[in-house]
Task: structure prediction
Amino acid sequence: MCRWMAYQGLPVYLESLLFKQEHSLIHQSLSARKSSVTVNADGFGLGWYDEREEPGLYHEILPAWSDSNLKSLAKHIKSGLFFAHVRASTGTETSRANCHPFGYKNWLFMHNGQIGGYEALRWQLDRLIPEHLYQERKGATDSELIFLLMIANGLETHAEQAIRVTLLQILDLMKDKNIDEPFRFTSVFSDGKRIIAVRFSSDDKAPSLYAKQFDDHIVIGSEPLDHRTDSWTLVPAGHIAYLENNHYHTHALFD
Amino acid sequence: MCRWMAYQGLPVYLESLLFKQEHSLIHQSLSARKSSVTVNADGFGLGWYDEREEPGLYHEILPAWSDSNLKSLAKHIKSGLFFAHVRASTGTETSRANCHPFGYKNWLFMHNGQIGGYEALRWQLDRLIPEHLYQERKGATDSELIFLLMIANGLETHAEQAIRVTLLQILDLMKDKNIDEPFRFTSVFSDGKRIIAVRFSSDDKAPSLYAKQFDDHIVIGSEPLDHRTDSWTLVPAGHIAYLENNHYHTHALFD
Amino acid sequence: MCRWMAYQGLPVYLESLLFKQEHSLIHQSLSARKSSVTVNADGFGLGWYDEREEPGLYHEILPAWSDSNLKSLAKHIKSGLFFAHVRASTGTETSRANCHPFGYKNWLFMHNGQIGGYEALRWQLDRLIPEHLYQERKGATDSELIFLLMIANGLETHAEQAIRVTLLQILDLMKDKNIDEPFRFTSVFSDGKRIIAVRFSSDDKAPSLYAKQFDDHIVIGSEPLDHRTDSWTLVPAGHIAYLENNHYHTHALFD
Amino acid sequence: MCRWMAYQGLPVYLESLLFKQEHSLIHQSLSARKSSVTVNADGFGLGWYDEREEPGLYHEILPAWSDSNLKSLAKHIKSGLFFAHVRASTGTETSRANCHPFGYKNWLFMHNGQIGGYEALRWQLDRLIPEHLYQERKGATDSELIFLLMIANGLETHAEQAIRVTLLQILDLMKDKNIDEPFRFTSVFSDGKRIIAVRFSSDDKAPSLYAKQFDDHIVIGSEPLDHRTDSWTLVPAGHIAYLENNHYHTHALFD
Result:
């Protein structure tokens, strides 16, 4: 399973979240507490918003803990809304094009989970990408594909509906092809203003999603960033969460 | 333009062709003589046949001249049929999945040229790949795509016809989309027994293709490997060449 | 020869100098105008000052033109004093530890040139590094070594004298060892406030060093960044230049 | 701690040891059984002997499990004496120059352990390398340093004595500098004919060293390659082992 975190609040240097937490993402990339896969060393990435409309993006195929550039960038880049992701590949190549977060215009997306039977479905899934978005298909992951389908289904104007439609579209295809493996999808989006996070699975094992509100910021991620796990809210499976202006609310994705 | 060479003959260490020629491919990667693009530093690759049925493959994103592994591998790998390629990207990412040669079962393929208007056509071209081959689509290049279409069109059983059919299929699509840019395609295939090379372009500027017969081997490539250019045969545009058992013949691809 | 540029003035996004000039460093890395070595693809680096005391550093072994991270970083990092460097190796490995600029506390350094007979002298030169600085010796280049010797000789408190002493120290050692090859050294330093650049060679072929004053900034570099070469000042060989508060002056290094 | 294995016997494809064992080195790189450090993802390397006098070398900074080249090379390279190593850095950079095995002429060397207080001693240790070997100092690890000191102390002509002298030389220096941390050194050498392995530590926690004799080959390594640990011989701490012509013997290094 991949691991990720997203931050919204007072602008801070990225290092304060990436390196200076007792259970920071960089530390997590070496050893996991809540997940059965123990190593996230198949590439990582950062996305951050600043004065420019489109977010900054940084992707690297080295393990996060051994990238000297990351240490310096995290000391010098300041942001009030940023994403970080450490990857454990479920099969596709370790290349920059396969690293999260994915960017499209002012949007960022990253993901933990997988489409069951993806290899068998990829031919049909890729055909769902409309022509005008196809040049954005740069890698081979199911994550990038899901993001493009959500954009095609209207993410920019009515995000929650686009997410629902896309999940159902993929589940339908899996059903047609008699895929028994689950579709697990815990993910986070942003347009630069708010953060939208989703915890979903077609079975009862949705990957974890934790949030915590601090005085001047909120953090949401696949795992808690400190060891007081009970001070973090576990977002219920099948729920969508919104983080905006340091507020946080959640509701069922499907009702 | 990319540069490449293929060797058939008495088994030799790869270094004898890759490093020890006065105009070797590694030297070419730094500065070109016959081409207007001067640097081939966007990844490179090797493919070689030995006792095993499937060829060995080595791809790297560093410039060929600065890869210390290449020097050692070329000193220790011996082969009687091998391919080498240095890439100058026409737009797609510098990643291993985009490096030539491409392999499929016992086949190798590499290529110099490009499909005019590829970005505009990629959506339609990718849809021509049949489902059973789609898992072989690992990168985003037109080269890998052309190879997969040729396999779909029967490369393994009737190579020459598969090549013709695929070229026409792509030209038809370009015509439908009113693409004015040319389709240039100088390429080389092998099944481990013989080498098939093609020099083709939809305009009158087919990338160069040179062959030379030595006592115990034949070399074919995008450029001569020594400075006696007039001792190399320039394969005519629109022709296909066969190299087998140290013999070499060529004929028009379309008549 | 390597190529580099340094900027001082109104804070700007790095891309305005790295990508948006008609003869930008990234373009130069592909093909040179003023230098006989044509490709600078053996790694590159950035160093930039912002609110923090120590500068940011970014080093990469890919050619600058094919690093997707560089494009995004240059769009999002803003600085009023920054360095950029594209490397053409004179023998040492293409690794991050060998990429310029080199950093030490609040100082940055980068360099074009080489110590004649460096391989033969490295054993003795490395022994000149004092024990307290030896942990800063991370790579194997002559450039990093020269920087450490200058720090040892007092760069932080009396820069110009430290530069002179170090150049003479190296020339003495070359003389002792009967090295006939020249010591060429065109370089730039900063403490975050001012830029110091040196154009020096033991023969009459000091690598070029050009400066140009604009309304709100100054640029100094190994080559002009636009094609109006005559609007750039060629710093005379054997001179040291100071850039501070948008002013620029130069005088002979030795008199 | 690093992990490594060495093979001597009937020539085999490297994959038979690297990938096809239930507890192969590639699997070990992801999760350890006998060691407290859990991830070996800071580079890896191969060294192998064939018809040529100098061994082949392959070093890579990606985790071993995600290097597509390694899979193909291991399928196509055959050897009767080879080394493989997966690295967990104890502080120095993840670069190819820091990856094991190290090569010198016909010799290979790799290592698990570390010199206590290495950072504090590096200045003095590097000064022990004689001038004629200094050009072989390409990285910054204690491992490369130890190998060069052993060569300086006569490894090529009287290996066992050179090993003893070097260990004592380093221990003396540590004593002079009042280093309390231990010097742990479990390592393996070859000249292409025989394998010499050493298990040593200045404290009572020498890193493990296991050997096993099969019908037509012997394997020695930091961990057993299968789960029948009791079928492997644990070389006693303070011992040196010799593997030659499919025979194996061991004796105390110091008496």
User: Anything to note?
Assistant: Chain B touches chain C at residues 30-31, 38-39, 41-42, 61-63, 66, 68, 89, 93-94 (CB under 8 Å). Residues 3-252 of chain B form a domain with the Glutamine Phosphoribosylpyrophosphate, subunit 1, domain 1 fold (CATH 3.60.20.10). The first strand of chain B starts at residue 3 and ends at 13.
